[in-house]
Write a structure and sequence with these properties.
The chain is mainly α. Helix content is 95%, strand content 0%.
Length: 40
Amino acid sequence: MRIARLNLKEAEDRWFNLSSALHLSLQTHIGIEDIQRTMR
């Protein structure tokens, strides 16, 4: 039971890292598009 709980916590941490990295890359992509739009 203890191992399962630890694995769940680890899975949650990985999912959080993945989603925050995805969010960050999405924000970066939007920022780059804004810069390109401004430069035109």
